[in-house]
Structures are given as C-alpha cells and as structure tokens.
Amino acid sequence: MPITRITVGRYEEELTHPGALKAALAEFISTLIFVFAGEGSGMAFSKLTAGAPNTPAGLISAAIAHAFALFVAVSVSANISGGHVNPAVTFGAFIGGNISLLRGILYWIAQLLGSIVACLLLRFSTGGLTTSAFALSAGEGVWNAFVFEIVMTFGLVYTVYATAIDPKRGSLGTIAPIAIGFIVGANILAGGAFDGASMNPAVSFGPAVVSWTWTHHWVYWAGPLIGGGLAGVVYELFFISHTHEPLPWASPIGADPAVKNGSQEPYALAHKKKHLDGKTHPKYSYVVPSALAEQEHGHIHCAPKRYNKNQKGFYL
To answer: At what angle do helices 56-77 and 18-48 cross, to 10 degrees?
Structure first.
C-alpha cells in the first residue's frame, strides 16, 4: 500500500540541506515562469479584446499558453527538483511515498511564493492591470466545479506518474514535460469555460492574493488535492510493482558467505545503509563484494529504490 511508504523526513536533510534548498529554489523559479506566462497571456488577450477574454479564441489562447509554459517549467526544473510546479503534484507524489512530508512542505512554500511574485511582477509590468482570480462561470455550481477540479487534476497527476515517476516508464521519461503540458492544455479546453480549470492550487493562490479575491477559493485547493492524491494512490496501488529483484549473486542476510579467489566476502542485503566498496552510494541497496563491483565496467544491476533521502523529488 502507498500509505505504508509515507515518510516525514529529517529536518537537517530535507529543510536545511543545500540540495533541498536548491530544489526549492528551482520550484520557485519554475512556478514563477509558469504563472507569469499563463496569467500574463490572459491579461494580454483581455487587453487586446477590450476586456472580453471569455471567448472561444480566449479559451484556446489560454490552453496553448499554459501548455507551452508548463512544458518549459517542468523541463527546466526536472533534473533539480523533479519538476513538480504544482502543490497537487507534490501531494500526489507524497501520498505515493515518492517524496517526504518535509520536502513536500518546502516545495509548497516555494510554489506559492513563486505564484505570488509572478502576479506582483505582472501587475507592476502592465501598469497596474488586475490579475484575474479564478471564478466560477455563470450557471456553474460550486460542487460542479469541485468535481471538475478533481477529475482534471486526477488526469494530470496520473500523467505525471505514468511518464515521470513510474520506474518502468522507459523512453516515456523523455517526453514527460510535453505530455504534462498537453494534458493541462486539453483540460483547460474542457473545463476552462466552467471554472477556469486550475488543477493547481499555486496558480489559483497567487492571483487571489494579489487581487484579494477569495470567493469559492477553497474549490481550487480541495479539488486538485483530492484528485492528485487519488491519482497517486491508484497508480501506486495498481500499476507500480514493488517487488525487489535480488542480484543474481546475492544471498539473504545470514546466509553462508561465498568464497571467491580464496577469500570470504559477504553477500548480504543492506537495509539501512547503501555501500559500494565501502562508499555510500544512493542508487544501490546492496552490499556488494569488491571483486564483483568491478564487473561489467563498474555497472551493478539492481532494481532502483523508489525514494531515498538523496533523491531530489521523484524520478525524471
């Protein structure tokens, strides 16, 4: 069960470690890029159409701008933080046991601040134009919008799991940013005319703070978090195999050591520390003998760990 792998994390490793702070900075910058481009495109379209952005052309414009901006935002931060750019994605990764609670909180703070700063920059650079907060369209009920946000965010986080987190993703990992951008663009085309299609609490939070508009704002938090959490549970539970393939020359703890080249070397699993020839190594969960560590030009084959303290976010 995914819930059994949820971890809080250690303060000194998740909140004050330079790697964690760099990852948070990457999330801040990526969210700023995404919100600035996405929200800015809506403000520009509104200016060009005399304040009438709620048209089919405006919807298509918003979908394209958000898809392209998210593609870039995820790409530039993928190798640093995992490229979440969304509290709902971070929450879904946490529920699936792919990021610690403390690292997730750090990401949330960075994402929300990035959104606020993006909206403040937009307001200043446009000469005081209003950053539009997300709102329900005429005739759209609050519970209708709530369900919309759950379903759309489920699709988004499910896509993230399939293309970025799943260890069996293979070549799909290379197209993860564009796939994530595409699903967001498609969902905006589906739900943008009804509730704005947020799918991202940070995207909703920045404009709400700067314009100080909080009507039905809870919908844009509760819906995405529920949808993201459900996607994490479903994908982890049904589609990710957690069986661990032992190395073909490894024996269980307590087994008799094998004799190689006249010397005895232990073939044991290391559950708490990962060593390779006496050195800590984050990728391997085995204690391997030095003679075998040099085989195949130094490549040691074993199943990857799902999460460890040295991993920045989740796999991409």
So the answer is: 160
Q: In this structure, what token pair is assigned to residue 104?
A: 């997730």
Q: What is d(CA 63, CA 69) in angstroms, rounded to the nearest whole number?
A: 10
- DSSP element (H, E) containing 44: helix 18-48
| DSSP conformation class of 308 | -
Residues 201, 149: Cα–Cα separation, whole Å: 10
100 to each of 46, 60, 69, 311, how far by Cα in Å? 41, 37, 27, 10
Task: With H, G, I as helix, E, B as strand and everything else as coil, classify residue 199.
Answer: coil
Token pair in block for residue 182: 């595409």
Q: With cut-offs at 50, 70 and 90, classify the pLDDT of residue 175.
A: very high
Q: pTM to 2 decimals?
A: 0.76
Q: Which helix (H) or strand (E) holds 178?
A: helix 176-195
228 Cβ contact list (under 8 Å, min separation 6): 86, 88, 89, 91, 92, 95, 153, 154, 156, 157
Per-residue pLDDT of 128-154, as tens digits, reads 888 889 999 888 899 999 999 999 999
Q: Is there a contact between 163 and 316 (Cβ–Cβ < 8 Å)?
A: no
Burial of 271 (0-12, 13-18, 19+ CB in 10 A): exposed
Q: 44, 101 in Cβ contact below 8 A?
A: no
